[in-house]
Amino acid sequence: MLDPRGVLRQRPSIEDISAQYRRMQQRVIELLDQALGPMDWTVVEPESPRNCTSFPGIAEAESRLLEAWRSPRSITDDDWPRAMGIVRSITAEHGFEPPEIVINRSGDHEVTGNDTYGAVYSFGTATGTELSVTTGCHLRAARTA
């Protein structure tokens, strides 16, 4: 059985992985804007800590909900496959598995994706479009050394 602290020490620090996922979010937003026109994204939820339920008893393990982004524009059913191509491509570059469909009906779509560290993103459109990322459990940079 692997030592949980050893597993965490092998992962990127919470600072590094958060920065990587923020770049991923920004790239998705940029490409959606280029492909579908300006979407006027705004932050609807600030970055905040989350519990590390996958590493119980390790108080120094951290997880974060990164800033959640929202556009007042919905993505049309015709544009949804194009938007999903962008999301799938960019998230795969950052180590995420192919997205899983949560909702897929006319005018209402949502997918989630996971990576090997337990991070999850959510991307969806109905009355607007939203993108959020929650990290998996990681240690601060000072604790990974």
Automatic annotation (TrEMBL):
Lineage, top-rank taxon, reads: Bacteria
**The species this protein was found in:** Saccharopolyspora halophila
- Xref: Pfam families: LppA (PF16708)
Recite the lineage of the species. Bacteria, Bacillati, Actinomycetota, Actinomycetes, Pseudonocardiales
Q: Which UniProt keywords apply?
A: Cell membrane, Lipoprotein, Membrane, Palmitate, Signal
* Gene3D superfamilies from the UniProt entry: 3.30.2030.20
Protein's name in the database:
LppA-like lipoprotein
The family database entries (InterPro entries) matched by this protein are listed as: LppA/LppB/LprP
As for subcellular location, the record says: Cell membrane
The membrane topology term of the UniProt record is: Lipid-anchor
